[in-house]
Design brief:
InterPro entries: PyrdxlP-dep_Trfase. This is Pyridoxal phosphate-dependent transferase. GO terms for molecular function: transferase activity. Helix 1 packs parallel to helix 3. This protein is globular. The mean pLDDT is 95. The protein contains three helices and five strands, in the order αβαββββα. The protein has one domain: Aspartate Aminotransferase, domain 1 (Alpha-Beta Complex). Strand 3 and strand 4 form a beta hairpin. By secondary structure, the protein is an alpha+beta fold. Helices cover 39% and strands 14% of the residues.
Length: 126
């Protein structure tokens, strides 16, 4: 259990640093799952956008990861990255079968979307 916790925090931190975002909760509150903020430039603005991104990652990159939309609640305290408010999160987990390559694949897929200037509402729907 401790190994899974340590690894998911390590991988979550790696993703957050790559994307310029944050972890969705303090590491000490996580067991073997952690929320990682998605870059605001992806424009996760609804549950439909989150579902569209999840489907896109599954179909086009063979990545299975839950994606969540978080409505803004209090502008002065809502999490931000350098481009705006963070409204999308992925929930990653770590188990014995996960490898670093799994997380690198997710990092690369999101970074490629950013590089291509794509937003969730413009992603194909399978």
């Amino acid at each position: 259990m401790q190994r899974n916790h340590d690894e998911v925090v390590k991988m979550g931190t790696m993703l957050a640093e790559s994307w310029g975002t944050i972890l969705g909760s303090p590491p000490e509150m996580c067991a073997s799952m952690i929320m990682v903020g998605l870059p605001s430039k992806l424009c996760v603005m609804s549950d439909d956008d989150a579902l569209r991104l999840r489907s896109y990652l599954r179909v086009y990159h063979a990545i299975e990861v839950p994606v969540y939309y978080q409505v803004l609640r209090n502008d002065d305290r809502d999490p931000r990255d350098k481009n705006g408010y963070i409204t999308g999160y992925v929930r990653i987990s770590h188990q014995v079968y996960n490898t670093v390559d799994d997380y690198q694949k997710l990092k690369t897929a999101i970074n490629q979307l950013l590089e291509d200037g794509k937003i969730c509402s413009g992603l194909p729907t399978e």
